[in-house]
Amino acid sequence: QYYLDQIAKNTHLNAFLEVYTDEALDRAKSLDEQRAQSGISGKLHGVVIGLKDVISYKNHSLTASSKILEGYESVYDATAVAHLLQEGAIIIGRQNCDEFAMGSSNENSAYGNVLNAKDNSRVPGGSSGGSAVAVQAGLCMVSLGSDTGGSVRQPADFCGIIGFKPSYGRVSRYGLIAYASSFDQIGIFGNTVSDVAKVLEVIAGEDDFDSTVSNEAVPSFESFKANKDRKYKIAYFDQALQASVLDGEIKDNILQTIDSLKESGHEVEAIDFDFLDYVVPTYYVLTTAEASSNLSRFDGVKYGHRTAIPNLDLDTFYKKSRSEGFGAEVKNRIMLGSFVLSSGYFDAYFTKAQKVRRILSEKTKAIFEKYDAIILPTVTAPAFKFGEKSTNPLEMYLSDIYTVFANLVGIPAISLPLYTHSNGMPFGLQVLTPAMQDTLLLQLSDSIM
Ligand code: GLN
């Protein structure tokens, strides 16, 4: 009831597209009854969680914040959601986001902007903006979002909370609407590292419904709490902190953190990484290619919106339904993806980008032979004002420079809310560890926080 009241008081933020009022209260009651009877409670008993509108929850609407899925209801639970429910969580509602998780500001939702609770004239970040603001404003305890190139870490940074993207394959993608399947991961927003670790323990692990999920055992929450006094070997990219796009205050604050990490006994070293200029182009070639293929299923026949114009031939019917249903940014990306996959340009763009991705992975592996972790900024600058970048998509894409790296190479990454800018907005520090070293990442994060 407390969270429902908070949601009701904050509808102007537009964080939730739907609130499961009666259902959440009923579930809270029945969870307590079950516990009274059996004496047993789940690991997330009574934890109030919101879901980004790209994660399936059976018999509930699911639209990816797109008109094309208006009226569609999930016919099954995402594996992550099934795990949450098994452990006693209460799902409180469906959260606004950029259409099909494409964007960095939540200005691409078909259902309106989400406002940053700290300053309503500024964006909350994207694409999981509603999920970030819901935790920022205390409308739920934890949210699940999705992170293909930063969509959990960047809005967490803009909102002053923790945003965690697990390793690729740590959490099943079954029931997550696909944007770019080889990049997508379900991620977690929370207020403490410990909350995030608890939720990860529940949602991670093997799944017969996702062939890309790892069958490596999931470390327990207890193991996260071990190792408190460990000293780490940490690298940072000189080029990342020297980049001209980086806000000066962000740079200074991170350099101070580096000093204090050294004072606490960690080894922190600057290393050369010449590949940062390639990450954004590589990311946008590969993700748009995958998106153009993934989104071909929305054809007006199988799901959601279909054109009302009668007597069309099949091709025109597809074109009309898709043109009416998809928003501008999604159309841009489908066209870009179709272009880089087209026979004349496949080798020049798609194959080339795959090769760059491979090189990035190899370089990253080599770094982790010497270091436990990498630190980076999460963003180039704190939350910007609405409209500031929406007319310049390239500038918007380039601001993803620090987050897309983790998805390109499949490693876990987290944004920790450590700083406040002189303009009053929060921002964070990004920490990354080797693939499947999610527990190590959370332990290190806990010692930094
Ligand atoms: N901002 C990035 C994009 O627009 C990241 C999106 C995401 O992680 N879903 O593609």
Automatic annotation (TrEMBL):
Heterotrimer of A, B and C subunits. Keywords: ATP-binding, Ligase, Nucleotide-binding, Protein biosynthesis, Transferase. The active site is at K52, S127, S151. This is Glutamyl-tRNA(Gln) amidotransferase subunit A. The keyword Oxidoreductase does not apply. Residues 1-442 form the Amidase domain. It comes from Rhizosphaericola mali. One of its GO terms (biological process) is translation. It is an enzyme of class 6 (ligase). InterPro entries: Amidase, Amidase_dom, AS_sf, GatA. It comes from the Bacteria.
